Amino acid sequence: MKVALIGQPNCGKSTLFNAVAGYRSATANFPGTTVRLAWSRVRANGCLMELVDLPGVYSLTTANPAEEGVKRFLLDSDVDVLINVLDASLLSRSLELTLELRELGLPVVVCLNMMDEAARKGIAIDAEKLSALLGLPVVETIAARGVGIRELFLRAGKAQGQPPATPESLAWHRDVETAVQTMERRLNGLPGPNRLAARFFAVKLLEGDDFSGQASPAARAAARELRGELERSHGRAAESVIMSERHDRSMHLFEKAARVGRPRPDFRLVLDNFLAHHVWGYVFLLALLVGFFYAVFTLGAALEEMLLGAFEGAFARWSAGLAAGSLGFTVAKSLWDGVAGGAAVVLSYLVPFLVGLALLEDVGYLPRVAYLTDGLLHRIGLHGTSTLPIILGYGCSVPACLAVRVLPSRRDRFLAALLATLVPCSARSTVIFALVAFYLGPGWAFGVYAFNVVVVIFSGWFLTRLWPEVSPGMLLEVPRYQWPIPSVVLRKVWLRLREFILVAWPLLIGGSVVLGFIEYLGWDRAVNAGLAPLTGLLGLPAVVGVTLIFGVLRKELSMLMLMQALGTTQVAAVLTVPQILVFTLFVTFYIPCIATITALVKEIGARLTAAAVAYTFALAIVLGVGARFLLGALLG
């Protein structure tokens, strides 16, 4: 069976998917688009299913790339059953998509999710009555707690091959229904898509959607004629008439199947009044960021010191029989440095950072940050939706660049992607924590983050002046606060950590061995001589040059290669305070890693990617040189 989960944003659809599929999921793009879906093979109630988690959409009327991608998937894929996930606490609004899905003619199972939230709002829903009114099976669930999931997939298995019934309660007003049925009759015998129900195509054509030119000229001509009749009789656009019909039917269904009582007291409303306040919201945000920073540093520094000591002692015992300076000793030490650096230096900071980020995401605080920063971003020519890719950049620049596809214009996508590459991702945060915070103190590291924010704001202001455009207002649905589920948080952390363990860590070990060979053969002197103009301009030792090349692969490589090139983990004994800060600033801002460059090419094209790479490299040089002379004057 091929089962697709579909629903409006923030309905708990992905929570349901993760509860069943967990980390065994994969992602892929819709054919010919940049919109991604998640899928997994799962066994539910003895039945093997290919489960697809579609992006959240409000409608199948194409208004953005996600809706276009979902509609194309439904048209082109052989889906056996649709599971329509509804937020039960927003039942009336959610049913509008359900009514649209019924028109497809595919088997649909309605999942009334978040029943606990509905009860908290004082909404009591009669699931059996709603099922009778819709002509569809309805199952109550609380996906966050695992309630009702087994029953949901049992009903999905039984629904295969059973298209929805058509109760009289769903009939539209006579003139609109007549126009739809007339369009259906005119579609009979005309060339065009025919896997789904004719009613779906008839309604879409009346809404002005010709399926990217797939509808025949005769069908489009008939649709124009009928749309004209509807517009003359109703005095407004035909698509507005159709939307009003769905809205009217959903309100009717809600009134018949639900009753609204007294809501329970909800402290989250009081909390939002404080966290979204025009003054206290920013105070809390700043306090949260400072607390998050110090928590990650404190835990990471303790782990780094403990693990480095353990690894150094273990290597001394392991290499006791090897002659210092020999090829065998060089290979062994390089290999060990890569393993120890990944475990002690990177993971010590990366794991606490990813856990904290996952908790902020699952609690629902990050959209509030977008709301708070909307005014600031408007002043530099963007809007709050651009905050989400930028915030994602603190975890990893790759998903941050992929997230810009939701932005409306090419200019906004370019600016948001570029700014997202400037913020310190988890790899660059590791460099900041392990170099600046560990050797100079957490205050210096916090200063690097604060300076980074200033640079990002200035870059946004500067670039929007180079590419001026009126940025539209922001429409953002802010999800409710909820307690994070430990198992989901751990899965999310593992999904992000898996890339480091399976991809980056082998690169760290391999890069360490390669650098060991280069040093053993003496080739590093030639590389460093070639990069001497750059390192000299930055005021860094010549041996640092080769480490900057590795940073284009992964930013952590620069730091670990630095320790290896200097021949010690006690960096502060070799480099001065200004040199440590200049190296960190340059690594933070210069060319993004290869994976990020690939994501940029996919989202904004090769020419704009080249412009982004050139800008970051020039910016890193300017900031590095400026920091060299300013810090040299201040610190001597």
- Placed side by side, the strands forming the largest sheet appear as 2-3-4-1-5-6-8
N→C terminal distance: 70 Å
Helix content bin: 55-70%
Low-confidence stretches: 29-34
Main pleated-sheet profile: 7 strands, mixed
The general outline is elongated
Q: How many beta-strand runs?
A: 9
Number of domains: 3
Radius of gyration: 29 Å
Q: What is the number of helices?
A: 27
Mean pLDDT: 81
Q: What class, by secondary structure content?
A: alpha/beta
SS strand fraction: 5-15%
**Multimeric organization:** single chain
How would you summarize what this structure contains?
The chain has 636 residues and is an alpha/beta fold.
Task: Describe the protein's topology.
Blueprint: E1 2-7, H1 13-21, E2 26-29, E3 36-44, E4 47-53, H2 65-76, E5 81-87, H3 91-102, E6 108-113, H4 115-120, E7 123-125, H5 127-134, E8 138-140, H6 149-159, H7 174-187, H8 198-206, H9 217-234, H10 238-257, E9 258-260, H11 267-275, H12 280-318, H13 327-363, H14 366-379, H15 387-392, H16 397-402, H17 410-422, H18 426-440, H19 442-466, H20 486-521, H21 524-530, H22 532-538, H23 545-550, H24 555-566, H25 577-589, H26 594-604, H27 606-635
Parallel strand pairs: 1-4, 1-5, 5-6, 6-8
Antiparallel strand pairs: 2-3, 3-4, 7-9
Helix pairs in contact: 3-10, 5-10, 7-8, 7-9, 12-13, 12-18, 13-18, 13-20, 17-19, 17-26, 17-27, 18-19, 18-24, 18-25, 20-24, 25-27, 26-27
